[in-house]
Amino acid sequence: MSHPEAAQVPPAPPTGKPRKAAFAAWIGSALEYYDFFIYGSAAALVFPKVFFNPDDPATATLISLATFGVAYAARPVGALVLGHIGDRVGRRTIMVWTLVLMGLSTFLIGCLPTYAQAGTVAPVLLVLMRVLQGLSAAGEQASANAMTLEHAPEHRRGYYTSFTLNGTQAGQILATLAFIPVAALPDEQLYTWGWRIPFLLSAVVAVIGYVIRRTLDETPVFQEASAHAAVAKMPLAELLVNHWASVLRVICAALIATVSTIFSVWALAYATSDAVGLDKTGMLWVNGCANAVALLAIPLWAKLSDRIGRKPVFLFGALGCAVLIFVYLWAISLGSYPLVFAVGVLFFGVVYSAANGIWPSFYGEMFPASVRLSGMAVGTQIGFAVAGFAVTIAERIAGGDGANWMGVAVFSAVVCVICAVAVATGRETHKVPTAELGLRPEEAAGRPGAAKQSAAV
């Protein structure tokens, strides 16, 4: 189901606003993923004793980690809906409303009754709020990535789109920093009111992000398509008929997010379990410092990809993670905090950032503008859904005491190899003109003005 009229839309001129778009994507993603990731810390450290039966700690931990994955299961549904809307009505609309939905659902988590107060009603309400978080996150990154990619100069698309992921890392840092003083509270205060504070702060987060994103202009690519009535009437149908192979490739490559969930959630729970006994606050500092290093590493890797290509940088990150996951979990099993800190920063802060900073441009460049948001949203969110439940799978592999950490490392490494194969067999896109992205060679050759735009930018 192609749209011949879409191919006749003149290429949009350079906007001069890539920095503003990148900043809006960065700040919005930071605020939104602060909300999303405080749940991960709470699921590992607090929720097993607050929302589930405390008489069975092992089962409570398993179920708590499973609720973390519920949001990832909801994300493909959100991607289908929000991706379709974003390709129909614009990128900015989705960016605004995903932030509002995330802020509201996160704030309400901080208001929920506990298991002791409401019994099984408490975890049911918790899961419902987590589902709303997942629906919001499904449209956030895809819309922000499309926004920055379509505003960016052609030779710097990797750099500018990396700010979306840089914002995500900043959100993880904010979430970790919010929980460091909370985790240091005496248990009685932590489990009664202390854990609620980071969630309640999301009300402020949502207001700030809403104000910032309301001032952002729609992308010139989408404005041109709207002006020429060339917006796809059924983006999902066009996507699945004409671009299914790219969707499948993105799904497989997006499994790299398994590294993030294993590092940020399962490894945190394992390290602070009775079997290892590392300090909660100390492990939160590992996560926080690794994410701080990632803030610097992500744009540097992205700039490198603008010079040498997306594929070699992504492949280095994916295969490097396949190796370092063994070293990191081994360091945790030894209970050596200095070793855990050093390997954690190298593993997650530097090597994982090579893949993590590249995918916003690489995935977006696989699709034409008419289905770009849908393609990124559907492909990434299905892959991320699997990654979200990687925490639950890892818990089952490792056993209640985490003794089989080697099995978790093997599982994670296999996933990284799958990602690497998907990327290695794909098309290199860093030098393809923006007007020709996602098009077959014969379509690109016949597109009016494409070569002119490429030369002008």
Automatic annotation (TrEMBL):
UniProt keyword annotations, A-Z: Cell membrane, Membrane, Transmembrane, Transmembrane helix, Transport
Record field: transmembrane: 21-47, 59-82, 94-115, 193-212, 247-271, 283-301, 313-331, 337-359, 371-393, 405-424
Keyword hit for Transport: yes
Positions of the Major facilitator superfamily (MFS) profile domain: 21-431
Superkingdom of this protein's organism: Bacteria
Membrane topology summary: Multi-pass membrane protein
Residues annotated as signal peptide: none
Location of this chain's protein in the cell: Cell membrane
Pfam families: MFS_1
Cited SUPFAM superfamilies: MFS general substrate transporter (SSF103473)
The name this protein goes by in its record: MFS transporter
Entries under Gene3D superfamilies matching the protein: MFS general substrate transporter like domains
Keyword Magnesium: no
